[in-house]
């Protein structure tokens, strides 16, 4: 499973708006369909390697793309068969069908089919699950290689429904932009490897996939304080704060103080008692405060969170600290990053609904903070609507303590100054890259070792 880095993501409504804008600017939609069909044919040509290809066409424009692809592949000498679910229902699809000179079979008649299936049945905009009889029919193609056009048939492209396609794709070709279903569970794995085909539509929007990780080399004038000083508060479970403090140092902070713990995970980390709590919060050199790892809900956490909020310092709030800070954040947003996993998000924002992207965006607007909604399909959302989707992460991150490591990395990136959203995206990228480097058998401590 893979997706293009730093690629645009559009909902089905935004995609329709982008297509309409192209038409207004003088690009006929028929030209866009031709480009889409050629792009599908190119990928099918490479996947098929000369073998016969069966293209399943639906009644809409997704099916139109399939008819164009069939015509192009046949012109290249490929043995192409076309099977249709129904007659074309749009003008564009009818025109594309007219351009295909070969026979059109019914899907049930095409079951003894080619080794490569091109799924051009529905694409984006599906508003309900597939009919039971069609689902059973498509499952009979399982075992063959599948190229899906835009999204596998049966997938709700905006990520608002968890329908699973009866025919998962080996490769999905996203047209112009990725769709939320490509980067959200449970549908993302069913899309297989996702490729992006620019077809002349300018996909303006605020959602993108995770950009490539950029290694930030300190400047010649760097010293430990201008690289970022991070203050981490330790709770009753100091191991979690220890991981966060070590992560902050490994992720690029120049100076890290672990408050409330007598044991430093690295010799370069300064440990201090709670007696210096207020003093450190007023230290102008502190660029970010991390609070929450290893800190259960209670009066002690509430007191420390209130003090951190009063300090005006940029904050990374993890675990129980998120709910503790929520009333203040909603009233007076500050430069902060929240790092909830699924359970913590549900406790903090039980009334939010929609896709994971929709919920993360709503939580960011409500709190005025950047939200890292963690998981295998991590979403980073800013109050101004910017979103980065970090699918796929590493499955080895599903182990205790890795969230504490991410919180520390956020602290390091935030302490450098600049935009909190950029800091959060950089931290997520660093976290995933560390996990990819280590791989099998990863435990949280490995992430902060050299």
Automatic annotation (TrEMBL):
Residues noted as binding (6S)-NADPHX in the record, renumbered to the chain: 61-65, 123-129, 150
Keyword Membrane in annotation: no
Cofactor info, note text: Binds 1 potassium ion per subunit.
Catalytic activity: (6R)-NADPHX = (6S)-NADPHX; (6R)-NADHX = (6S)-NADHX; (6S)-NADPHX + ADP = AMP + phosphate + NADPH + H(+); (6S)-NADHX + ADP = AMP + phosphate + NADH + H(+)
Record-annotated membrane-spanning stretches: none
Cofactor: K(+)
Listed InterPro entries: CARKD (IPR000631), Nnr (IPR030677), Ribokinase-like (IPR029056), YjeF_N_dom (IPR004443), YjeF_N_dom_sf (IPR036652)
GO molecular function: ADP-dependent NAD(P)H-hydrate dehydratase activity; ATP binding; metal ion binding; NAD(P)HX epimerase activity
The protein's Enzyme Commission number: 5.1.99.6
Binding positions for K(+) per the UniProt entry: 62, 119, 153
UniProt domain YjeF N-terminal: residue ranges: 15-207
Domain YjeF C-terminal: from-to ranges: 207-450
GO BP term, pick one: metabolite repair
Highest taxon of the lineage: Bacteria
A Pfam short name: YjeF_N
Keywords, sorted A to Z: ATP-binding, Isomerase, Lyase, Metal-binding, Multifunctional enzyme, NAD, NADP, Nucleotide-binding, Potassium
Function: Bifunctional enzyme that catalyzes the epimerization of the S- and R-forms of NAD(P)HX and the dehydration of the S-form of NAD(P)HX at the expense of ADP, which is converted to AMP. This allows the repair of both epimers of NAD(P)HX, a damaged form of NAD(P)H that is a result of enzymatic or heat-dependent hydration.
Family the UniProt entry places it in: In the N-terminal section; belongs to the NnrE/AIBP family. In the C-terminal section; belongs to the NnrD/CARKD family.
PANTHER family in alphabetical order: ATP-DEPENDENT (S)-NAD(P)H-HYDRATE DEHYDRATASE (PTHR12592:SF0), ATP-DEPENDENT (S)-NAD(P)H-HYDRATE DEHYDRATASE FAMILY MEMBER (PTHR12592)
Protein name: NAD(P)H-hydrate epimerase
Organism of origin: Sphingopyxis bauzanensis
Gene that this polypeptide is encoded by: nnrE
